[in-house]
Design a protein that fits this description.
16 strands, 452 residues, 4-stranded mixed sheet
Amino acid sequence: MTDREDDEAADGYRPNPVLLHDAAHVWHPYTQHLGAPLPVHITRADGAWLYDVDGRPVLDAISSWWVTTHGHCHPDITRAISEQAAVLDQVMFAGFTHEPATALAAELVSRLPRGLTRVFFSDNGSTAVEVAVKMSLQYFANRETPRRLVAALEHAYHGDTFGAMAAGARSVFSQPFDPLLFEVARLPDPSEGDTLAALDALLEARGSELAAVIVEPLLLGAGGMRVWDERVLRALRERTRDAGVHLIADEVLTGFGRTGPMFACDRADVQPDLLCMSKGLTGGALALGATAATEAIYDAFRSADRTKTFFHGHSFTANPIACAAALASLELFDDESEDERIRIEVAQAGHLDALRGHPGVRAVRQIGTVAAVELHAPPGYLSAIGRDLSAFAIAEGILLRPLGHVAYCLPPYCTTNDELARVYTVLQRFLDGERAPESSPFAAGAGGPVDE
């Protein structure tokens, strides 16, 4: 030991090597590291709970960025991962195939909105969106009727890679790259504007250029958990179908039961041309993305002309272990899972009713198991109130990561009513004026939703 280590040992202090290495070498997402608090060191997870290095529990009220569906370390999923890893861990997916991928594709097609018959695997939500946009644009190029315009909604978020950024609303996320992003026709957010009239005008003016309209069906996630009307989605589908324009449904957040049914498009009885999946696809256990397409889109790439190939791929496309995890997760979507989601939806509605009318609350909204509370505070993703709420919540053992002035609860489906009540008790106390004490055991890791 060095003299310093001797002194630290004598004082009963042991430096945490994870935090030391983190501070020295790690670059975290969405984090301004200058002045940022230390991250919380999590060592294990079970069900709806995370546990820090000292054994303190943290209730995961946001499904660890919306990915954990059935709960952390679900035994069926972890067993499938272990068994698959012992047999086949990885093989390139160009020119090769394997049972976990083919079984998963078939299972997804059986559960997806009808008409979606082909599944292209990728790595995450952003790449699933990139694939969908590229498929749409190349579909028209392959048919020698090129269209290069994409339309998307205001307040949309579709990911952080370049094509996904272009489709998303211009924001602090994309500002440094705005000159490099391709043109997107922007339609009003359906929760606050006339999306259909704007689409009609766009089709009238530039219909022959328009390849696709991309939407987060019924719920604009990172844009503030904005809920919008099923009737608008159905009308968008009718108009795009009539105009020969692809409808891309970005169900990276909304898929796998979050809005009630398996997919948000099911809730509106809509069949898109392309559908993007990730997050809950593996139950949150491993990274995996997928884009589902119609047979008509797939057929536009089948040709003796090799230049019409879809030249896109990833090293870990259809990784067997991730596919096995996804299959195990899909098997858990049974009647019992649906009952649990309904239970959470009812419980969330009751808690929102109790907050409605509070002077600190501007609005509440809900769809399926997703509940949002818009706070009376300066709006925007960088609103300081979100960081304050996150710090208070983590000090109380609750993981919340507000979208600026919009707090939300998006729990794993195993979360009990008593656990949900803990979340809303903490939110109520914050609204009533409580803030995180400096002496909190989590104070060192009480980072906010954004630390910019």
